[in-house]
Write a structure and sequence with these properties.
217 residues; alpha/beta; Arc Repressor Mutant, subunit A; 2 domains; 8 helices; 21% strand
Length: 217
C-alpha cells in the first residue's frame, strides 16, 4: 500500500524539503500552509499520516489537530507534530490535542524518515475489519455491528464487492447503479464513496484517479 502523507507548515522551504525527501521514499505527499488548508486537503486526500507544525496562521497546530480528531472520516489518520516548539508544556499541549507523536525541529532527515516509517507500520500491522453485506436489510456488518445503508449506497457497495480487486469505471458505476436514463451530477459517485468510507473504513475502496474505483478484501 502506498501511504499518503500530508505536510502542514507555513514555511515553503520546509514544505518542499520534507516533501522531496518523503516522496523519494515512495510516499504520496501533499502539502498545506495553514490549518484551514490542511483540513481541506485532509478531506480530499484522506492521508494516512499528517505532519503538523504547531505555529501557523489562520489555525494553529493544536486547533487543527482537534478539528481532525472530531472528523469521523479521519479517525484512523495518524497526526504527528513537527515543530520548533520543544518545551514540555508545548509537547503536552500537542498530545492533549490528540497527536500520536511529537517531533521537534530541527531534525535530521534520515531520522524523520525513520520515525515516519515506524509510525506508518502501526497502520500496516492493524488488520482491516471484516465486513459482510446483509442484502435483506440493505446493511453492512463491520466488526459485529450492522449499519443500515441508503439504497444507492448499498447498491454501489454491492457492485464493488461483487468482484473484489476489479476496477469499475465511473461510467459503468453510473449505468449499473443509477441507470442509463437517469441524469445525476458529476460528484454523485464521489459523495457516495466518501460516505461509504466513513462507514466501512477508508482502506476498503481504492480510487483510481480519473478512472473509477475498486474494492479490496
Amino acid at each position: 500500500m502506498k501511504h499518503r502523507i500530508l505536510i502542514v507548515d507555513d514555511e515553503p522551504d520546509i514544505l518542499e524539503f520534507v516533501k522531496y525527501n518523503l516522496a523519494r521514499e515512495g510516499y504520496e505527499v501533499f502539502t498545506a500552509q495553514n490549518g484551514a488548508e490542511a483540513l481541506a486537503a485532509a478531506a480530499e486526500h484522506r492521508p494516512h499520516l499528517i505532519l503538523l507544525d504547531m505555529m501557523m496562521p489562520v489555525m494553529d497546530g493544536a486547533e487543527t489537530c482537534r478539528a481532525i480528531r472530531r472528523d469521523p472520516a479521519l479517525r484512523d489518520t495518524m497526526v504527528v507534530f513537527l515543530s520548533a516548539l520543544g518545551e514540555e508544556e508545548q509537547q503536552l499541549a500537542g498530545f492533549g490535542a490528540g497527536a500520536d507523536d511529537y517531533l521537534t525541529k530541527p531534525i535530521r532527515m534520515k531520522l524523520l524518515v525513520s520515525r515516519v516509517q515506524a509510525i506508518l507500520k502501526r497502520i500496516d500491522t492493524t488488520p482491516a475489519a471484516r465486513i459482510a453485506l446483509d442484502r435483506t436489510r440493505h446493511a453492512v456488518c463491520r466488526e459485529g455491528q450492522c449499519i443500515a445503508l441508503p439504497r444507492k449506497e448499498f447498491e454501489l457497495l454491492d457492485l464493488l464487492c461483487s468482484e473484489p480487486g476489479r476496477l469499475f469505471t465511473r461510467e459503468e458505476i453510473y449505468r449499473r447503479v443509477w441507470g442509463s436514463g437517469v441524469v445525476v451530477g458529476d460528484r454523485t459517485i464521489d459523495v457516495h464513496i466518501r460516505k461509504l468510507r466513513q462507514k466501512i473504513g477508508e482502506e476498503r475502496i481504492v480510487t483510481i484517479k480519473g478512472v473509477g474505483y475498486r474494492y479490496e478484501e
